[in-house]
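Researcher: I'd like a candidate sequence for this fold, 616 residues long. If you have to choose between options at a position, lean toward the conservative one.
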């Protein structure tokens, strides 16, 4: 007998003999084979090769279906996520600012601009084509601040005033009372002249001669008593002198009240026009600008590493004064300026002889110590009335006393060189402090409710411009011996050539040798402000734009920068250290590649030149 073959080899054996087919071993419903007999015991367990086709085919099909379902699910998720992103970006994208301050700003922009001009051809006319006035933007802002002071001074009932503060309102009212001034005539002036020795015109002539009386009058009050006319050259050739037009009476009175009662008006102006939230927003803007400058200093090619670190340290150590001096933010300190009781700056005891010849007295026999009274004193208090002239002269004496005291006392803090309602920012080299008065951080340059593009483009570029004044010395010949002199000079020559190739409105060209420091600050300031704004857009949402202006946030940034420079062409003073207004717009903007990109300027257009300069 032959032994039974192994089950694994039996199928192959049967197939080779032709006597067996795989289906023969399959049972029907009754369990019998095709031959009618019972399945052999050794065929009840099939080999793996037999079971593979029937067992794995459904698994493969299910695996394919599962992969298709997974892919479909992932696709649906991606599609839904994409639609969600589109919805988010559409809903959170730049929407129009509909607040009253934004509508007012829109009206300003529409009134000054000329949108019929192509921005790539003449962006100055696009933004400032309708600007009028000798110094449109800054002068208009300065006049607006004076109007605000006028509203404050003409509504004393809306303020809780102390005795010293009331004097400011009384003086302003006296100045505006032209009927009383005309009724008094020359009598108040005659009284003053007689007290000083008299002139023949006063009716009480003494032995004192005319020149001595005039000298006494001018030394005590600092004013020339006769008719005075102010001449200024025409802003355009041939620069012939012309008499300045007279100011409105209210403006003269506001300016005089501000000069004599600055602490009082500073406190009231800041209280109304520069709230804590406005100050906080301005400081946030300045911090962003300062950080952008520190970051930009790392990439300046002409700086050596030591100079770079020193420059960054100077920026981080810089003090910033925003809005108003510390005393103006504290009403109790401001009241002491004109308090009739106790020591204060306006109550300095000072001798008339010192007023007559301060340089002689201070440098000669008389020694002066801060905080101590001077010999032969009189109390330099402000005494108002009964006439406007007497009030005015009393204020002059008090002001001169405070000026003298300021030279005799040392101050541990920076003395502001501008009134809080002024519009001029500045950098103080001795104190290493930069000052931005509250009067500058006003519409249309800054407002917490403005689109950020406006604040960064206008006020932000001004802040960056002032910060670059820290490094003026580096740009002068020999100012940075360790720097790459060749690279620095190349950047400066490129800048000079860049400005000289931009035509003025009359078709001529400008020699920028005298203004190259300010040109450098204009170009660098714009680049720093744009860098700070771009970072803001990257990390913050909720950007807005002005309604009905059809400008993107980036375009609005550049439009706001140009608005700061708006000024009627040909009205610039000959001694102005800045370039003409058209160059202050076209010079920096045409040197900025982002401007040409966002306004789609063709290559070779005025605002998209073939080459650009990199200084800062």
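Model: Candidate sequence:
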């Amino acid at each position: 007998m032959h032994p039974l073959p192994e089950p694994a080899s039996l199928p192959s054996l049967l197939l080779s003999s032709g006597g067996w087919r795989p289906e023969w071993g399959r049972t029907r419903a009754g369990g019998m084979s095709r031959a009618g007999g019972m399945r052999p015991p050794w065929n009840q367990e099939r080999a793996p090769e037999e079971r593979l086709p029937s067992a794995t085919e459904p698994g493969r099909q299910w695996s394919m279906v599962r992969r298709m379902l997974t892919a479909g699910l992932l696709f649906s998720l991606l599609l839904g996520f994409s639609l969600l992103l589109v919805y988010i970006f559409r809903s959170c994208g730049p929407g129009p600012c509909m607040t009253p301050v934004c509508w007012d700003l829109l009206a300003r922009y529409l009134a000054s601009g000329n949108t019929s001009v192509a921005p790539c051809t003449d962006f100055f006319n696009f933004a400032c084509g309708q600007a009028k006035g000798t110094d449109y933007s800054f002068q208009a802002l300065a006049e607006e601040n004076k109007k605000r002071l006028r509203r404050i001074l003409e509504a004393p009932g809306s303020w809780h005033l102390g005795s010293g503060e009331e004097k400011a309102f009384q003086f302003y009212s006296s100045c505006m009372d032209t009927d009383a001034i005309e009724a008094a005539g020359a009598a108040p002036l005659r009284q003053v002249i007689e007290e000083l020795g008299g002139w023949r015109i006063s009716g009480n002539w003494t032995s004192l001669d005319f020149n001595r009386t005039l000298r006494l009058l001018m030394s005590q009050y600092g004013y020339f008593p006769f008719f005075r006319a102010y001449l200024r050259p025409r802003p355009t050739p041939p620069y012939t002198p012309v008499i300045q037009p007279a100011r409105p009476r209210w403006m003269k009175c506001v300016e005089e009240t501000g000069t004599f009662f600055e602490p009082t008006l500073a406190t009231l102006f800041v209280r109304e026009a520069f709230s804590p939230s406005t100050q906080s927003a301005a400081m946030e803007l300045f911090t962003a600008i300062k950080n952008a400058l520190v970051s930009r200093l790392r990439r300046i090619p002409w700086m050596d590493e030591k100079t770079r670190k020193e420059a960054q340290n100077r920026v981080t150590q810089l003090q910033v004064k925003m809005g108003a001096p510390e005393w103006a933010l504290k009403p109790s300190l401001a009241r002491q300026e004109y308090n009739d009781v106790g020591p204060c700056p306006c109550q300095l005891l000072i001798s008339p002889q010192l007023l007559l010849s301060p340089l002689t007295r201070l440098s000669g026999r008389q020694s002066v110590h801060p905080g101590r009274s001077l010999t032969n004193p009189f109390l330099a208090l402000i005494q108002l009335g009964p006439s406007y002239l007497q009030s005015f002269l009393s204020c002059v004496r008090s002001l001169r006393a405070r000026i003298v005291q300021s030279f005799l006392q040392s101050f541990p803090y920076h003395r502001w060189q501008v009134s809080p309602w002024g519009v001029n920012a500045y950098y103080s080299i001795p104190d290493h402090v930069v000052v931005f008065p509250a009067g500058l951080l006003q519409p249309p340059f800054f407002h917490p409710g403005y689109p950020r593009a406006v604040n960064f483009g206008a006020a932000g570029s001004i802040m960056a411009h002032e910060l670059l004044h820290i490094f003026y010395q580096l740009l002068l010949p020999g100012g940075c011996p360790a720097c790459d002199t060749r690279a620095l000079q190349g950047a400066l020559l490129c800048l000079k050539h860049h400005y000289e190739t931009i035509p003025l409105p009359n078709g001529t060209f400008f020699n920028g040798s005298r203004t190259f420091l300010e040109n450098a600050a204009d170009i660098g300031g714009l680049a720093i402000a744009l860098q700070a704004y771009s970072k803001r857009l990257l990390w913050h949402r909720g950007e807005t734009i002005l309604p009905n202006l059809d400008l993107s946030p980036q375009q609005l940034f550049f439009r706001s920068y140009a608005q700061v420079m708006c000024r009627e062409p040909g009205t610039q003073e000959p001694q102005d250290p800045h370039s003409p207004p058209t160059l202050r717009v076209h010079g920096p903007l045409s040197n900025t590649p982002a401007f040409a990109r966002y306004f789609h300027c063709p290559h070779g257009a005025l605002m998209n030149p073939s080459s650009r300069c990199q200084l800062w």
